[in-house]
Amino acid sequence: MSTDQKREDATYEAETAQASEQTEANEAAQTDEAAAEAAPEATAEATDNKELDELRKQADDNYQRFLRTQADFDNFRRRARQEKEDFAKYASLKLIEQLLPVVDNFNRALSTSKETRDFDALLKGIEMTYRQLDQVLVQEGLTPIEAVGQPFNPELHQAVMQVESEEHGEGIVVEELQKGYMLKDKVIRPAMVKVSV
Fold it and tell me: Which domain of life is it from (predicted)?
């Protein structure tokens, strides 16, 4: 091989190596550019995945809170229903407790009258027991309706007869046949009356 040819081969190899280096440099630059372009996409995707995970966790927390609230509400509703049933079942408990001494006194009066056959003592015992019963009823808000001498009021009185009366004007209650009662502000039984015409 001649020196010229050796030079040409060396030049060719040098040029090939230089071209190869240039190609590698270009490929590296392209890879860097692709990596630079892909980096924001990868970063954005990673950010989206992180946000999605946080939203899923928040949705799961909210669902668990909803389930607990629903369970609490079901328990509250069950307790309220039970309390309402108990209240209805034992609504008269206080009144019954107050009436028990009255019942005891009636029993004492009856048993004493059987032994002694004393009518006056029996009458006195019944009068005392009646006052005790009346006191319990007044404490509970029961009041008698005033009727005789009052103008007839269809909300308080039930007229069963009309009578002529020189003593009273027209529409006045002249006689009470059955006592009426109010419980606090509600009429529970109107007074049965005779009314003047």
Answer: Bacteria
